[in-house]
Amino acid sequence: MEAAGAGRNVSIGMLLLKGRTFIALIAVIVFFSFAAPNFLSPANLVIMSEHVALNAFLAIGMTFVIITGGIDLSVGSIVGLCGMVAGYLVLNGIDLGPVGYTVFFNTYEIVLITLGVGILVGLVNGLLITKLNVAPFIATLGTLYVARGLALLSSDGGTFPNLSGKEAYGTASYPWIGSGNILGIPFSIWMLIVVGCLAAYIAQRTPLGRHIYAVGGNERAAALSGVKVDRVKLFVYMFSGFCAAIVGIVISSQLVAAHPATGETFELNAIAAAVLGGTSMSGGRGRIAGTIVGAFVIGILSDGLVMMGVSSFWQTVIKGVVIIAAVVVDQFQQRLQQRAALQRQAALG
């Protein structure tokens, strides 16, 4: 009888832990709806959704990386670098000095080139980790500085202003990426839906997704079972760079300007969203849907604190506490799972 009661308690505890992100989301919405004026106004909801989308893009890429047991500290710098690349191309094109000709690209070409830059930085991260055996923390910390330095060098630390584009060059539509909407919903939200669905499909429905989880669960066992571990790691870091490039494009488009400092500390929000959404820092576990909900929690928390007039310094402290709490809860969940597994074994024995 006591064993049955203990089993029920473990089951209830596991149910609450698995739904902790939704519980946290509901809690912050209810709290700020009373504490912050106009929190649930339509205009504020649109603004918050756009902020959430930026963090969610990065968190989706970060989720794949963390599931494999890695970390990507460079995503914030990739955001800044890609924003500067897009801004430079919109304003200046590419000067072919010896030929005496300047090539200008239209909006679609600029987007593709910028995405390519993000993927390239992710590829560099992956190669450092897989081919040179550099620890993910060190490799991505190094590329964090390199990418930020390149962003600063591109304009001598200045801003690329007035990215409204020119009709003659096919770049007048660039600002629409960040400010346009379809059916009353911001375009960035539609992009998030597409990227989120794609990532969830890869994770849950494809062999690549199964390999990503296998590498994070036990890399050696995955390799012995035929998984191309290096290829999997290359993919997740390239995908993370791709997601960061999207954010760089969207921000520079929204602001109609690009600044090399854009994206500073963005990696912290991305990690927080992924961990809060149930992604295990030890690898092998995580869901894209949970990460997106985690991004909503972090985004709503940040915007709600701003609306309440809370100091930015305290906001940083609170985010740090959220990350620590999420990791502690994750560890507690793992212990409960192990306890439940032992109880099942004892019952079968």
TrEMBL record:
It comes from the Bacteria. One of its GO terms (molecular function) is transmembrane transporter activity. The chain crosses the membrane at residues 21-40, 52-71, 78-104, 110-128, 135-154, 174-203, 234-251, 288-306. The keyword Cytoplasm does not apply. Keywords: Cell inner membrane, Cell membrane, Membrane, Transmembrane, Transmembrane helix, Transport. It is a multi-pass membrane protein. Pfam families: BPD_transp_2. InterPro entries: ABC_transp_permease. GO terms for cellular component: plasma membrane. It is found in: Cell membrane. This is Sugar ABC transporter permease. The lineage of its organism: Bacteria, Pseudomonadati, Pseudomonadota, Alphaproteobacteria, Hyphomicrobiales.
